[in-house]
């Protein structure tokens, strides 16, 4: 089996999940962890058996033995690091959003094509087995022609004005927060599953907390929920807590979604519902192993994840037998497996989201932001 | 106990539910059924023990012994019949929509005030015990300040172009179908539960089937699902199958809903989710005895309908002990009970939706229709 | 339409539900309410439009104009009243348990046969639309040969030792409480749906509270949950709070159920699961409009109650269109409708549980009690 | 960080899950895979980066550099291999059942004690975060005194007589199948969570298929569902498809469970319900991230897995933030992490099931088998 050598840049919540996910593939060697906080990098290198830790990611890029890198830094660093990595000849798997502007996204797509490097934007949520089942049902015509697409991505981790995170800082996060961070996952999944494009949007954003209480020390993403800081700075917030969007997918299909980081009780609820002329499907990330299948003239179905019941093309995304749950971590493994396989086989058609998909997300986001500012419908580029 | 005499006009699906619901109140006597199809009226009078059947509702209005009338006819007749009834001195309980235009609605509100008659627009769905629980939680401040209101009213009974019903004919139904028929229930419930007003809307409507196959003979509402007609007329459709709406409730609260009559597998799913600064609630008409209560810092709750757990002001809407389900029919009983009590006690503040609430629904609907036509945001009058 | 005249004996929780249910049938006149607490009887007669109230049920039985009676008294009175009523020539609908011993049950079956009177034991829970759907699926062979039958009937209204009710007094209730009151519903439904007979049982009963705090004044069934009495009597309890049963249905089919009145959070959860060689079904009374259908080689189904999806023979038990919930009250209407129809048509095969079914329940109960006492398997007579 | 070297014996379904789970711990090196089918072993060694593959596990045991071994072979080999491994000085993590008889189990417990080796019986299902939450709630007294314990472990992978697997062969599997394979998981979890012991049982077993169609070639566990063999041997089956058990846990607590491998639609449903004097809990392995918490005097709760909501002692079993699902694979990681930590720290109290727990399971199983044979209650040793 062909072996690969890789590096991970960034060691926040998601960097750690990447590290563990890479380990599950016995044929990918963790060559390096890049992270300015070097002690943290060294600690993780020890825990996950990485060969070395570097404060400066450029040092890692100079190592010719390394095939690929995972970019798991704060958003504003995605673009410069991915750019440098591609130019250093590395294959790049970049966390979403791919960049903080459409223009940056376009550059990365062009660079990757020019350098013929494998490139992925990490919309991992596509790769729950049941999401792939929806996709394949649509491809096989089980849903008929798509009429209605609706849903929500709701969380509650930023409900209180005492909740704080680097994502609240536009400089590190980019100009959109809720729609960029979770709305983009929803749109990516909606387009991936339906095979249709969002062509115009009318978006309404809201920043419920105009200021938030910023703690003086650094905190980890998501850790804010149990944090009880002694000392805050009242800080103005210029990114949205919430967005509601109605959209069109061409002349016929219509849809709507809500993204929110302030919906009490919803921890990580990405729900996607698709209704076509022959049937409907509904899926919720908080119960990822279940797929609801709606039917007009017979009983609805609730499929429990079971490889023997999945469409042949969805089956390879489920590693465990029926009723043995596969979770969030497992979607990482599924993407990594396909990403490295495609590095090893230049002829293979990638079955993972590429930079072009990341750019697509940025274009939708740009239209949403513009729609909100203009209080009007806007076409997606 | 004071006794009342009443009449029901219209004998379709909902007329029949009114008849049975009235019977459950032992102190309301069914004096008459009014319906142009006189055999049908006579048959129902026999089944439900009504004293007489009349083809012409005016005959019934002439009877001075009758206290109140229920208007259950096709929509376009609501206005003229309700108007005549009020002018004849009857108390009037009218099915929704109250009328087919804002102007008609205004007239009815004025007439009822002038004649001092009890008046109800039949938004019965408010009166599921768990909807009242949501309302009382909000009133007690359990949800804090309302931030997000979202949901859907989805059905599938008009999914196929072979589905036919009088509601598809704008002349009988009014100019809006999906938003008027079910969207109006959603908006009424959202305003009732939150205590807030929808102040502006951006709506996108769609008529997926531009023509439908109209059977040559008459059919009952909902019966189309099993109908297999030999002969159809291809008939143009000018009312919407679907509407998606983003809306604002004042400066702070934001929301969105989807109404659809073509969503395969959804039989009668009115789901309403409300998120405030302290907690969230979510309810689905297909499981009316359950209420989800979302919390950020403790486990979410799922309340099973149980009078001993309900807020004191919600408790009178639940007649049965915990876990004994109360359904759609039971909401009729709850409204009827309060409507007749208020006739008997002129000093009682009505706890049911009045003509003014019906008018409110027509105003929202008008804004939605206008928004769609203008492809732009529109303020609600 | 043929009209009937009826009377209700007993005015506790379930008596009231009978009264309201009878009213829904316009062709059944409430001739009398019999109840020793005459003011209560008069109050209900006024509320439900009954012609008269009587303290002594015998007075009612003397009225030759009355066709039928509903026996809704405490359990120990079922036998004497039902006996007198049959002998007075009335058709009898008796609440369950039919009697407090097998011997009494046998007498009632014989008397009803001798006097050729219509007779019903009120196992109304069979008549939820989805329970009838299970029954008809089994009859049509959709489940194949039945292998496994399991489930539970769990409530929590007697969890605390401060919970009190007449059912706790063996003299009024009979020697078994939990198995007689709710276990009997489970067994009746299991036999009704499977068409099989429970042939032997091993039962283990438990009285968790050996004494309870009895309030000095009378209280209504179920009202104990909010009661805060000032004064209790510590009273020994000799009926069970709980029973677990493994059973056989002939040589092949195996099963098990748990009945409990002390299971916190379960309000009225009768769940029944049946697995056959071709498929499985599962139903829960707390969500009566849903039926889970299990399949090995395709996705499971969750049927929302919808007449157009029900088996033809289950369809008449659903009065409302898809997704319009039908609840506990509605099962009463379904039984009453069939009971009175069968009075009017002596040739009609009853489609409701008769005294013979009530006797059957007493026989299973007797075997369960004996099994517990002997700490051994016992055959059902 | 201390590093460990380990080996895995057996490469069926569960062996593979062990391999991948071990990889997730960066500080455990896969030194060897032992498996008579040497090509399979070599293939997996390549895929998971193991240093070598051996047909004979004894060769691996001879390697003094290896600290620990995972025994993932068919059941009948657990005892001899675990015995040899302990005697070779290895720490041993053995799949359940620990052995095929109580006597073998006793020997292993004694050997491990004598050789002072860390020993685990792999009841991994305890280590879903929500199962640990139940355990800690009970320890903290949130449930009060336990009254009722009930549930089921139901699967459908052996529903048809054409389903075949090595587990059907008593010689490889041991004398009990359904109760040993899945019933033992249920009992282990019930005792672990309640902290109580099953003291007596009445069990009823059933072999629905007295013969099965055995395919002539070898097949993988669970693969039978899609297999379409050309040629079968009609083979007598002497292990059970189903078991129903009523049990006592001391003088007060009562319970019941059903284990079945023939329940259509149930893929891997381990449901455990526990009701105490203060509250109840219910959990289902098919939705592992949810915990139902039943309450008498307030709304029930449904906790979504969220570290910030978990009891402090349950929190370390959840690696991901709220609403990010953790599945079956993740329970392996949790056990492995604690097992290796305890090897590195001889003073650490093991927080994983040991051989003694495996022996306990065998004792319950023995009582169940004896109870079935005697058709009577039997005390657990």
Q: Give the helix tally of chain A.
A: 10
Described by the principal axes of the CA atoms, the overall outline of chain A is: globular
In what order do the strands lie side by side in the largest sheet of chain A?
A: 16-15-14-13-7-12-11-8-17
Low-confidence stretches of chain A: none
What fraction strand of chain A? Answer: 15-25%
Which assembly state applies to the chains in this document?
Answer: homotetramer
**How large is the radius of gyration of chain A?**
21 Å
Q: Could you state the order of secondary-structure elements of chain A as H and E?
A: EHEHEHEHEHEHEHHEEEEEEEEEHHE
What does this structure look like?
Four copies of one chain form a homotetramer. Chain A is globular and about 60 Å long. Chain A is 32% helix and 25% strand. The termini of chain A are far apart. Chain A is of the alpha/beta class. In chain A, strand 14 (280-284) and strand 15 (290-294) form a beta hairpin. In chain A, the strands form three sheets. Chain A has a nine-stranded mixed beta sheet with strand order 16-15-14-13-7-12-11-8-17. In chain A, strands 3-2-1-4-5-6 form a six-stranded parallel beta sheet, with helices on both faces. Chain A is built from ten helices and 17 strands. Chains in contact: A-B, A-C, A-D, B-C, B-D, C-D. The interface between A and B is large, with 48 and 47 residues.
Concise description?
4 copies of one chain form a homotetramer. Chain A has about 375 residues and is α/β, with parallel strands linked by helices.
């Amino acid at each position: 089996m062909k072996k690969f050598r890789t590096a991970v840049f960034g060691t926040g919540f998601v960097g750690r999940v990447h590290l563990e996910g890479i380990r599950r593939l016995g044929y990918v060697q963790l060559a390096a962890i890049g992270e300015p906080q070097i002690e943290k990098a060294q600690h993780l290198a020890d825990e996950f058996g990485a060969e070395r830790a570097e404060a400066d990611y450029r040092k890692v890029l100079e190592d010719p033995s390394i095939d690929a890198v995972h970019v798991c830094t704060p958003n504003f660093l995605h673009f410069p690091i991915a750019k440098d990595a591609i130019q250093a000849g590395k294959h790049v798997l970049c966390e979403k959003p791919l960049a903080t502007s459409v223009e940056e996204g376009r550059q990365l797509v062009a660079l990757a094509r020019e350098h013929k490097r494998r490139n992925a934007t990490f919309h991992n949520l596509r790769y729950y087995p049941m999401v792939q089942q929806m996709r394949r049902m649509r491809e096989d015509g089980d849903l008929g022609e798509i009429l209605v697409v609706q849903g929500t991505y709701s969380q509650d981790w930023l409900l209180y004005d005492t909740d704080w995170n680097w994502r609240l800082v536009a400089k590190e996060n980019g100009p959109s927060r809720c729609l960029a961070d979770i709305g983009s996952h929803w749109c990516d999944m909606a387009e991936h599953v339906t095979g249709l494009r969002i062509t115009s949007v009318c978006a309404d954003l809201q920043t419920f907390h105009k200021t938030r209480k910023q703690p003086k020390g650094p905190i980890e993403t998501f850790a804010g929920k149990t944090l009880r800081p002694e000392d805050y700075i009242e800080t103005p917030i210029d990114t949205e807590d919430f967005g509601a969007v109605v959209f069109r997918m061409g002349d016929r299909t219509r849809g709507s979604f809500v993204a929110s980081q302030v919906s009490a009780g919803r921890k990580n609820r990405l729900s996607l519902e698709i209704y076509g002329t022959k049937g409907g499907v509904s899926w919720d990330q908080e119960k990822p192993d279940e797929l609801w299948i709606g039917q007009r003239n017979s009983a609805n179905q609730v499929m429990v994840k079971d490889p023997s019941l999945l469409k042949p093309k969805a089956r390879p995304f489920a590693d465990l037998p029926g009723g043995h749950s596969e979770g969030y971590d497992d979607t990482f493994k599924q993407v990594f497996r396909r990403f490295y396989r495609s590095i090893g086989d230049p002829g293979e058609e990638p079955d993972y989201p590429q930079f072009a998909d990341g750019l697509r997300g940025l274009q939708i986001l740009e239209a949403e932001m513009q729609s909100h500012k203009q209080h009007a419908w806007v076409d997606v580029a």
